[in-house]
Automatic annotation (TrEMBL):
The lineage of its organism: Bacteria, Pseudomonadati, Pseudomonadota, Betaproteobacteria, Neisseriales. This is Nucleoside-specific channel-forming protein Tsx. SUPFAM superfamilies: Tsx-like channel. Gene3D superfamilies: Nucleoside-specific channel-forming protein, Tsx-like. InterPro entries: Channel_Tsx-like, Channel_Tsx-like_sf.
Length: 268
């Protein structure tokens, strides 16, 4: 179960945990994402030019490994896998992947210093140039590992570059964030609480969240993005969980956005 906990903390938080021993993990999952009513109302307004939201399902495959040189994590999502939704702007399925790799550099005051790299890419399957969308984020910076008993936190800070359809590729300020986790037992069962969070700041004007929304909310140079999750290791191979997904001035919309994600996962 210890191996499962390590894999859970890594995979569910969307990042890396510090493990001194070699490890490898992988899993597949089915997920239902439901946006809050306020998010749906705001983003589906007739005057909203971009970022319209709909509830959807997605399939995910993820995995990672830790070695003496550092650690690597990645996932691939197939969104809207079960339907063709004509209400979506693209009307088609979407593909998302993320790869995070951290490379051991040195130690300072007992803390490991790691080279941090990540690439996040999302795009739809619409071949119509008028509707096709893709957005790729790249980050290069530094990371470390902090541990407080059973709680672990792994922050990072890096330079942010973004490539978006119709806007080209620009340096887009900076990104700071962390992944964190806490494993615990309750009623003889194994659980974990995890969080991932990203803050974009000093963003390039080409990569604000879009035009002003109907309420006249000013577009910001800072955006927030993340999720808080509770996971239950029901068996060695089955994990279920619920995630509270949030974003502020991100995901194509100004202001706040919230969603709940329900997950069933098979661990290899």
């Amino acid at each position: 179960m210890k191996t499962l906990k390590i894999a859970l903390a890594l995979a569910m938080a969307g990042g890396m945990a510090a493990a001194h021993a070699d490890y490898t993990f992988g899993d597949v999952s089915i997920n239902q994402l439901n946006w809050s009513p306020s998010t749906l109302d705001k983003t589906q307004s007739p005057t909203t030019a971009f970022g319209a939201k709909r509830n959807f399902q997605y399939l995910e495959a993820e995995g990672g490994a830790g070695r003496s040189w550092g650690d690597v994590y990645g996932f691939f999502d197939l969104e809207n896998w079960n339907r063709h939704d004509p209400q979506m702007k693209s009307g088609d399925q979407r593909y998302t992947f993320k790869v995070v790799a951290r490379f051991n550099l040195t130690e300072v005051a007992g803390l490991p210093i790691k080279l941090y790299t990540h690439v996040y890419d999302t795009r739809d399957s619409d071949t119509d140039p008028q509707n096709h969308f893709f957005d790729q984020n790249r980050v290069l910076g530094l990371s470390t590992d902090l541990n407080f008993g059973k709680v672990w936190v792994h922050p990072f800070l890096g330079r942010h570059q973004e490539m978006k359809y119709g806007q080209g590729t620009h340096m887009n300020g900076y990104m700071a964030g962390y992944v964190a986790g806490y494993d615990f037992d309750l009623f003889g069962q194994s659980f974990a609480v995890t969080q991932w969070h990203e803050t974009e700041f000093d963003r390039n004007e080409n990569h604000f969240t879009g035009v002003a929304d109907p309420a006249g909310v000013e577009q910001k140079r800072t955006g927030q993005n993340g999720a808080v999750s509770l996971w239950w290791n029901a068996t060695k191979h089955l994990t279920t969980g619920v995630q509270y997904r949030y974003a502020v001035n991100k995901l194509g919309t100004s202001g706040n956005e919230y969603a709940w994600i329900y997950t069933a996962k098979y661990n290899f």
